[in-house]
UniProtKB/TrEMBL annotation:
It comes from Salmonella enterica (Salmonella choleraesuis). One of its GO terms (biological process) is actin cytoskeleton organization. GO terms for cellular component: extracellular region. GO terms for molecular function: GTPase activator activity; guanyl-nucleotide exchange factor activity. This is Type III secretion system protein. Belongs to the GEF (guanine exchange factor) SopE family. The keyword Repeat does not apply.
Length: 91
């Protein structure tokens, strides 16, 4: 587990917050806390999540490009390719 917080289930360790977008989650959490009356339905929450992700990624992707780093989407694809390589080679 490399010292990370998380849980092991069926002999698979999953770090806490796995799958959470570190750029979007803080904004969404803050909005839900400050304006709970605006997010009373799941549809409102889902719409806001999509909107927030679009706006934030529009802002952060150019920063990754400036630093010659893969974007979060590209990095996710790299990890999926690595995982698929090892899954395919598993007997």
């Amino acid at each position: 587990n490399a010292g990370l917080p998380g849980a092991t289930k069926n002999d698979v360790f999953t770090p806490s917050g796995a799958g959470a977008n570190p750029f979007i989650t803080p904004l969404i959490t803050s909005a839900y806390s400050k304006y709970p009356h605006m997010f009373t339905s799941q549809h409102q929450k889902a719409s806001f999540n999509i909107y927030a992700e679009k706006i934030i990624m529009t802002e952060v992707v150019p920063l990754f490009n400036e630093c010659a780093m893969p974007t979060p989407q590209q990095f996710q694809q790299i990890l999926e390719n690595i995982a698929n390589k090892y899954i395919q080679n598993t007997p």
